[in-house]
Amino acid sequence: MEHTETLTRYVANFVDELHKSGLRDVVISPGSRSTPLAMTFAEHESITHWVNMDERSAAFFALGMAKQTNNPVALVCTSGTAAANYYPAVIEAYYSRIPLLILTADRPHELRDVGAPQAIEQIQMYGDYVKWFHEMALPENTEAIINYARGKASRAINTARQSNAGPIHLNFPFREPLVPDFTISKLWGKEGDDAYHHNFEGKMALAEEQVDVLVSKLMQFEKGLIVCGPQEDEHLCKEIISLAETWNIPILADPLSQLRTGNHSKNNVIESYDAILKSKKVRDCINPDFIIRFGAMPVSKPYLLLLKEKQNITHFVVEANEGHREPTGESVHFIYADPSQLCRQLNKSDIPKFDSRWLEKWISMNGIAKNILMLDNNPKEDEITEGHIVKHLAEIIPDYSTIFVGNSMPIRDMDTFFMSNHKHIKVLANRGANGIDGITSSALGAASKGNNVTLLIGDVSFFHDFNGLQMAKQYNINLTVVLINNNGGGIFSFLPQSNEAPDHFEVLFGTPLHIDFKHAITMYNGYYYKPSSWDDYRQALVTSYTNNGLSVIEMITNRNENVVWHKDKWASIEYEIMIAMTKE
Q1: What is the pLDDT averaged over residues 231-242?
Q2: Residue 376: CA count within 13 A, CB half-sphere
Q3: Which pLDDT tens digit goes with each residue over 334-345?
Q4: What SS3 string covers 139-182?
Q5: Which domains does the chain have, with CATH numbers?
Q6: What is the DSSP letter of 257?
Q7: Which pLDDT does position 503 carry in this prediction?
Q8: Over the stretch 299-309, which tens digit does the pLDDT of each residue have?
Q9: Phi and psi (nearest 5°) for 294?
C-alpha cells in the first residue's frame, strides 16, 4: 500500500500541475506500463482525455489539436515501440513549431537492457527533435520529490510553448504494481490555481536606431515585395496589410499565411503569384530590389526559383525569436523581432518612396491570372478538374471554418486556386516536414475542438492514415473530407520522372491503389458521396456541413488529364501577361 500511495501522489501532483500550467487535453494510447499516467489523467476532471489506440495517429491527432488551439497537448503511451510510433509527428511538431508534451512510460532501471519484454532504449530517443528531454525520477512520497514533479510539469509546459514552440519529452520509469489509488486524502496535493513556476516573457524588438538603419537601407530601393509564408497569427495579418498599403507595395500571400481570407483589406494581396511565376519569361521581367518575408518559406516552387535566379535581391527574413528558415543559400538579413511590432515600427518611420507602377504591375498580372484560373474552359462541361475542386469548396464552405490541406498536389492547388475572400477561413497544413503521414488524424484533432473543419486530401495520403478515421467514429467528430482520387501519386506526373522513366513510372511513382474507398468510409460509420458533376459536388458539400460525424466526398479525376489542364492554364497566363507587358 505504501508503494501505491507513493506512486499515486507523485503522478497526481505532476498531472495537476500540468493543468495549473495550462494543459487542457491529453491523447492516451492504451498500455500497461503507462497505467499510472493514463488513469490519473482520466481521473482529473479539468483535463479532457482522448483515447487513440494507434500511437502514430494519436500523435498527429494531438498535433492537429494543438495547431487549432495554439495550446500544448499531451501524449501518453506505454513503453517499447509505442513511443517510436510518435516519431513522425514529433518531427513535424518540431519543424512546424507546435507545442506537444510527450510523456512515455518506461521500465524501471533494473529492467532495462536485460531482455525484458516491451523494453527499448527510450532515453533521448527523439534526439534533436525535442526542445527538452528529461528522465523523471522514480516516485517518492517526500515533499522534495513532490515539488520536483510539480516543477518538471510546469517547466515542461512553459518550455513547449515559449520562444519557438515545439515538443518536449519526459520519460517515466514505473515499478509495479501500477494501479493508483484515488481514494487517498488530498489526492491532488497543492491547493489553489497558481502554477509552480511563473514565467514572464517579453517580445523581442528592434531598438529605434536599428529601425532607422533598416529604413535608410530600404530608402535606396524602388521596387519591393512583402512575402508572407505559412504562419497562424491572425493579428499579424492586419499589421502586414497596413504596412504594405502605407508603402504601396505588393504582398505575395501563401495560402497558409491567413492573409487571403478575413475582413481585412486585400488591395495589395497577390494570391496568384505562384501561377504568375511559373513562367520563366515572366520571371525574367520581374526584378524586385528587396523582399521582406514573414512566416516560413512559402509553398511555391516558382517563388524559390525567382530567388535563385535573381541573386542581387536584398532579402530580409523576419523571425519572432530564433531560427534560420532560408533554403536558398543566398545572403540574407535576418531580423529577430516580434513581427507585428516590427510592422508597427516601420509604419511609424519615414515612408520610403517606392515606385507605384510596380504595385500596379503586380495587380494587373494578378487579375489576368485569376481570370484564367477561375475560367471553366473544359471541353466537357461537367468534367471534374482538381483545381476547381478548390474553387467550388471556397464558395460553399461556411464562414468561420478551417480547411486542413494535405501535402503534394492538394496544397499546391490551394496555392493556385484558393482566391481572396471575406470569409473567416483558417487554412492549416503539416508543412514542417511536408510528409503525408497522419494528415487525416491532424485534421480530426483540429476538428475535435468543435470547429467546422474540411480536409482536402489526395487518395494516397488518405490511404496512408486509414487508422485515424477510428477517432471520427469513436468521438463522433464532425469532419468533411474532400478526397481527390486520381488513383495514385498525382504530383509525380508533373515531374521529369513521368517522361524520363516511363517503364518504371507507374510502379515506383504513380502507385495506383485501385481502392473502392466507400467500404472504408461505411466501416467507420461515415457518410459517403461520389459526385459526377459540379452541381452534385456543391450539394454534397452543403449536405456534409449539416451531418454529424464523418462525411467523405470522393472526387474522381484523371492524373494525365490533370497535368494537361494545369499546363494549359499556366501557358495561357504566360501568354496574356507577356502581351500586357508589351503594351506598357
Answers
A1: 93
A2: 11
A3: 999 999 999 999
A4: CCCCHHHHHHHHHHHHHHHHHHHCCCCCEEEEEEECCCCCCCCC
A5: 2-173 (3.40.50.970), 208-371 (3.40.50.1220), 375-569 (3.40.50.970)
A6: S
A7: 65
A8: 999 999 999 99
A9: -110, 150
